[in-house]
Amino acid sequence: MADLLGIGTSALLANSRALATTSNNIANVNTDGYSRQRVGFNERPPEISGIGNGVSVGSVSRVYDGFAVEQVRINNASFSNFETLNEFSSQLDSILADSNAGLSPAISEFFDALQEVAGDPSSTVTRQVLLSESESLVSRFDAISGRLESLNNAVNSDITATVNDVNVLSRSIADLNGQITDTEAGSGGVVANGLRDQRDRLLLQLSEYTNVSTVEQNGGALNVFIGNGQSLVSGSFVQTLSVTTNEFDSSRLEIGYVTSGATAQISDQIAGGRLGGLLDFRASVLEPSRNTLGQVAIGITSQINDQHRLGQNLDGTAGGLYFNDLAASSPLALQNTNNTGTGVIDVAVTDVNLLTNSDYSLRNNAGVYSVTRLSDNTVTNLPPSFPVTAAVVDGLTISVASGTVNSGDAFLIRPTAAAPRDLRLQISDVRQIAAATPIIGQASSNNTGNARISSGVVNAPPPPNANLTQSVTITFTTPTTFNVTGTGTGNPTNVAYTSGGAITYNGFTVEVSGVPTAGDIFTVSANTGGVGDNRNALVLANIQQQLGLNNGTSSISSVYGSLVAEVGTRTRESELNREAQQTLLAQSQARRDSISGVNLDEETTDLLRFQQSFQAAAQIISIADDLFQVLLGAVSR
């Protein structure tokens, strides 16, 4: 009877444990991250007679697939990355592509106003409209620059908040590691299923912020790694992340990795999750956009200023700067905070046509200076004469303004980033607009040939030739030769004549075409009283479509149009990637749930099965008791 009673009791206890486990599964059917549990039954060792001795509960384990859980974390990190990238890129796209608040309409309206001045150069009304549109263009650059700065501040704030969240999660994971180790070590091998589920939930939350990988130690603790293998959690020890300022630019926050009392910058090693999306947006969308916007600003101001200085205003004097000289004043050279020297670098844009939208780094490596274009890592070694003499790279003239640059010192050169913010209008009076050209070619009324002279153009670049407005006389000695007289011309004689050929002196160019006769005279002189002259205004208006940027391949409008298209493409690309990753995340989550999630139908079936087993075990005990009572009765008689 004792064997029968023991077998029944063991079955009763085992099925009671199974009922409790199944009931716990049903109770947690809606608990996020809960892994359903299963009871493992073991046959108890038989007695010497070979008869079975009942059942025992070997373990209560999670139904768990580590690969499926890891795939959920990987896809969660990717989805969060693209969601963040799309969130910020769409904001930038709406700023740049806005049909009212974007830069494109302001540029068009500015050049349209120039065309109006060219159509009626003596009108103060058209000039006032141009002045107003010029102020609007400056304001639009400044407003967009402010919006981009707000986005940069938002990225910085988000990085700070996210790093704080990562540190909180890391501490919680480390605490759970300790609890799991202590629980499993002191329970005779019982697995802390609930604590492990809690840790998995925290790891899933952590994957929203960055890519996560894990390695399990003996004892149940997990080592957690981020980035390119940086340890974040090792057992109960946490490696804290921090937020630091960039070594060149204090307005740019970076992610620091604190180890041995020192902080290393690891922003370039972080990928995936919200942190990866923030860093990707800043590096590949926001900063290139700001630089390209600056390239457009410098392109407009430089080309307009150069041509405006070659013109003549309503007062008959040479045109000055229309906008401030961004090419000279806006490029930045930022020192590395670790520099040991006192060197200050000066940078100016001296060839706008060669200007790119990239930032550059300048380094002194044991006396060898090199400049790296950061957009494609192209390295240019500077001449040995640098820094005694200036060097030119991509239209930038780089020199040491003061101090000494020691070996190992580095500088970040940002040629265009500040330009949209720094743009200012330099004229305030409509009479200062130089719509006219200061020289004019004229034919003598006594000429007998049919040759004609063009009005003439002033040759770039500014400043104009000192003798530009000095009178120059072209006298034909024969139909095929002429003499030139005038200050600064050298007074050449018997110059060969070609109809329509360029005749250039004192910084101007005219063309004489047709058939002159001997004695015909043409003059190029100051354009006095030229209030109705629109030649310079026409050239200014045509700058919008001139291929004066990107080494003669792009116009002002096409550069900005390419910027809008690029940001729009990145935004759409991030949206499609987000949708794709959302689908993959849902699929991996469904796979994990199919393995570890609670199925109510299955649990109900198990509940009935264990209930029946429990009842049967109780019946065994009842029968054992009846038999024992019969035996006692027989003995007592």
Low-confidence stretches: none
**What's the average pLDDT?**
93
Question: Can you summarize the main beta sheet?
Answer: 5 strands, antiparallel
How large is the count of helical segments?
11
Task: Walk me through the structure.
The protein has 11 helices and 26 strands. With about 625 residues, the protein is α+β, with helices and mostly antiparallel strands. Among the domains are: about 1-45 and about 595-635; about 440-525, no CATH class. The strands form 7 sheets. The protein has a 5-stranded antiparallel beta sheet, with no helix packed on it. Strands 18-26-21-22-23 form a 5-stranded antiparallel beta sheet, with no helix packed on it. The longest helix has about 60 residues, at about 125-185. The two termini are about 20 Å apart.
Brief rundown of the structure:
This protein has 637 residues and is an alpha+beta fold. The chain has eleven helices and 26 strands.
List keywords for this structure.
20% strand; five-stranded antiparallel sheet; 11 helices; 637 residues; alpha+beta
Topology:
Layout: H1 2-27, E1 37-43, E2 55-62, H2 66-96, H3 103-119, H4 124-185, H5 193-207, E3 212-216, E4 222-226, E5 230-234, E6 237-238, E7 241-245, E8 253-259, E9 262-265, H6 273-308, H7 326-329, E10 332-335, E11 344-349, E12 360-365, E13 368-373, E14 378-381, E15 391-393, E16 396-402, E17 410-414, H8 419-422, E18 439-443, E19 452-453, E20 457-458, E21 472-478, E22 481-485, E23 495-496, E24 502-505, E25 508-513, E26 521-526, H9 535-542, H10 556-596, H11 600-636
Antiparallel strand pairs: 1-2, 3-4, 4-5, 5-6, 7-8, 8-9, 10-17, 11-16, 12-13, 12-17, 13-14, 15-16, 18-26, 19-25, 20-25, 21-22, 21-26, 22-23, 24-25
